[in-house]
């Protein structure tokens, strides 16, 4: 053995370890699932290397397996694999540090969480992986040798601040993780992890579908003695009988390859939990088999809860694994799922691909494009299905993944219609419940052919916006869009089911229609236009620095004025977003609309008729414009000046 080197855990790792050791996590059993899953990944990697890398072609992969060893006297449980192994540097990099982005923020949230359940669900999202060993062990020893190297390394730690590294000779290729178990403590959820019965139960529950045999020395002492659960009928390893008392604990069935009718929902859920490390059941399952020229099976899941880093730029990863004829090829296969569906987890097993296939090749493969198109349709179909059959569940899923799906409206024009059917938004129809566009259309008034919406920062701001007045007065429903991404997709999507989408803060609105019965109204309108023409043209000139036009409004009932955009103008929220992102935009000059029935507006006209050169009149114009800007949540260019003008007016009026 070489000399001992002591290293410190990275600060974030230390924090995570402290949380894992000293808190809360009630389901301690999952440590074994995590270690077995790491071992299984290591076996996958070795097999793949042996198949594609001639340098390792001689490696014997005939008996890749995971071995669980119990030592009652030493009170240790060891998870051993003969997989790819790690070098010393791998150990430092992979076990000593956490590379996930957003870790610091999440740790902060966990620390601040008020109750154990919240903290637990946050940790659950995080996936504690290897560190979960410290939930059940007060010391962990890893011994490992990377395939193709001669040097073995031992890593040891009590999970506190540091770990020790030491070179070790004569290790076999692969990794063993030895847990020096804490005493069993049922109050703390610590079972007796030396008990073969307990180990079998955990493996069956969490790791049954692992594709490699998970073996344990049989505890059969005589033909019918204690531990006869060792005769588990599920045992699938033919070597069992001959191996002199070694049992295979898992069934190793590739779930996706079995016919749907033979798989229970429970099996699907467990499989999902294994591949995702989630502890909740998935919200939906898609299992399909494609036959014909390009055969594949796919088993996909829509989770119930979004991962904490769903919107983190750095950790955008697809959740789909690619297999070729049962051989694991890669995680995060982005060629199989578009970015906006990155939350979908699962497995695609393609029969006719080369094991050597690279990400590059996949990105350009025509057949893979076809698979992806089909999978997207299936996933969107599953969501639609959930929406119609289980609205409550769908609402939760939309709450978690709606924002990601809305990204699809920008990225995936092939599926615009399907995505629009899924959109759920707030509306003036119901203060609590959201609506779909389909439901909106079904409620549209006779003669209404447009879907009206208004974007803004909050529901209250949108509801109280002056633009809403005529719509409220006339009983038209308006969609309330407050998610920043809404600003973007509504611009890209011209219509839903043939009905144009229109912002009530843009362009002209004509809620009165133009039927013959309204001829009178039209005449009235023309008369007003005439009456106000001089005022409007004077205002347009006076406010030309701020607006491009001043006109009469048909959308106001109680406010004096509001600001609207032209049909293709950038909205103020979007303008703010662009500027916040550092993008230069030419100043957007919008349109000031006046309510001709409002006393302020009529008084303004009278004053203007009496003499347009009174400087006080220009100040009034400025105040009217500023007030309209504030009402829609906009920012004044010169708030101090606005306040001064207003104060002067108030003082004079008192
Ligand atoms: N038995 C093992 N053999 C080889 N490498 C391993 C083994 N266990 C862990 N590793 C390496 O250490 C890394 C970190 O493991 P850890 O369990 O903390 O996270 P993970 O498996 O990457 O993530 P997660 O558990 O969330 O899926 C692994 O990605 C792997 O590269």
UniProtKB/TrEMBL annotation:
Matching SUPFAM superfamilies: ATPase domain of HSP90 chaperone/DNA topoisomerase II/histidine kinase, HSP90 C-terminal domain, Ribosomal protein S5 domain 2-like
InterPro entries assigned: HATPase_C_sf, HATPase_dom, Heat_shock_protein_90_CS, HSP90_C, Hsp90_fam, Hsp90_N, Ribosomal_Su5_D2-typ_SF
GO cellular component: cytoplasm
Region (A): 1-359
Keywords assigned: ATP-binding, Chaperone, Cytoplasm, Nucleotide-binding, Stress response
Keyword Cytoplasm: yes
Places the protein is found: Cytoplasm
A Pfam match: HATPase_c_3
UniProt biased composition (Low complexity): 232-241
Subunit structure: Homodimer.
HAMAP family, per database record: HSP90
UniProt name for this protein: Chaperone protein HtpG
Naturally occurring in which organism (per UniProt): Streptomyces genisteinicus
């Amino acid at each position: 053995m070489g000399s001992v080197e002591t290293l410190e855990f990275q600060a974030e790792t230390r924090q995570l370890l402290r949380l894992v050791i000293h808190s809360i996590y009630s389901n301690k059993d999952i440590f074994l699932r995590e270690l077995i899953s790491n071992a299984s990944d290591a076996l996958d990697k070795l097999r793949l290397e042996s198949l594609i890398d001639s340098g390792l072609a001689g490696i014997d992969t005939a008996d890749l397996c995971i071995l669980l060893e119990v030592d009652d006297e030493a009170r240790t449980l060891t998870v051993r694999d003969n997989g790819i192994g790690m070098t010393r540097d791998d150990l430092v990099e992979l076990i000593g540090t956490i590379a996930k982005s957003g870790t610091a923020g999440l740790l902060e949230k966990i620390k601040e969480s008020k109750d154990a359940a919240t903290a637990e669900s946050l940790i659950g999202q995080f996936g504690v992986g290897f560190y979960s060993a410290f939930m059940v062990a007060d010391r962990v020893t890893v011994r490992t040798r990377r395939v193709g190297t001669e040097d073995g390394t031992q890593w040891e730690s009590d999970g506190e601040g540091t770990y020790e590294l030491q070179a070790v000779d004569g290790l076999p290729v692969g990794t063993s993780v030895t847990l020096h178990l804490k005493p069993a403590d049922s109050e703390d959820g610590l079972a007796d992890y030396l008990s073969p019965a307990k180990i079998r139960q955990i493996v069956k529950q969490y790791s049954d579908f692992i594709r490699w045999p998970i073996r344990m020395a049989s505890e059969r002492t005589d033909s019918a003695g204690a531990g006869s659960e060792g005769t588990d009928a599920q045992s699938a390893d033919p070597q069992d009988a001959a191996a002199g008392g070694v049992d295979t604990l898992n069934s190793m069935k590739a779930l996706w390859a079995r016919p749907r009718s033979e798989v229970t929902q429970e099996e699907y859920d467990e499989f999902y939990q294994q591949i995702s490390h989630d502890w909740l059941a998935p919200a939906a399952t898609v299992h399909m088999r494609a036959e014909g020229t390009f055969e594949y099976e796919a088993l996909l899941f829509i989770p119930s809860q979004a991962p904490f880093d769903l919107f983190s730029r750095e950790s955008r990863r697809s959740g789909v694994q690619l297999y070729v004829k049962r051989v694991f090829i890669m995680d995060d296969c982005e060629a199989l799922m578009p970015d906006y569906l990155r939350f979908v987890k699962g497995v695609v097993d393609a029969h006719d691909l080369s094991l050597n296939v690279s990400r590059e090749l996949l990105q350009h493969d025509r057949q893979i494009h076809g698979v992806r198109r089909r999978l997207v349709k299936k996933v969107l179909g599953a969501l639609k299905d959930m929406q119609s059959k289980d609205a409550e569940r769908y609402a939760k899923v939309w709450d978690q993944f709606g924002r990601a799906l809305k990204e699809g409206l920008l990225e995936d024009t092939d599926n615009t219609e399907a995505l629009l059917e899924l959109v759920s938004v707030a509306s003036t129809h119901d203060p609590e419940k959201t609506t779909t566009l389909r439901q909106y259309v079904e409620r549209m008034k006779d003669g209404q052919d447009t879907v009206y919406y208004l974007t803004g920062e909050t529901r209250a701001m949108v509801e109280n916006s002056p633009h809403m007045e005529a719509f409220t007065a006339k009983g038209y429903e308006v969609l309330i869009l407050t998610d920043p991404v809404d600003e973007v997709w509504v611009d890209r999507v011209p219509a839903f089911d043939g009905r144009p989408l229109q912002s009530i803060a843009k362009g002209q609105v004509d809620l009165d229609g133009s039927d013959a019965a309204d001829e009178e109204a039209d005449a009235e309108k023309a008369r007003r236009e005439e009456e106000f023409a001089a005022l409007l043209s004077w205002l347009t000139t006076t406010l030309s620095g701020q607006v491009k036009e001043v006109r009469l409004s048909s959308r106001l009932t109680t406010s004096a004025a509001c600001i609207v955009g032209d049909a293709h103008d950038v909205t103020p929220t979007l303008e703010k977003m662009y500027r916040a992102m550092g993008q230069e935009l030419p100043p957007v000059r919008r349109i000031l609309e006046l309510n001709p029935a409002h006393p302020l507006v009529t008084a303004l006209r009278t004053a203007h008729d009496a003499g347009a050169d009174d400087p006080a009149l220009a100040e009034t114009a400025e105040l009217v414009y500023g007030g309209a800007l504030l009402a829609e949540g906009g920012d004044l260019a010169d708030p101090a000046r606005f306040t001064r003008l207003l104060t002067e007016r108030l003082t004079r009026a008192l």
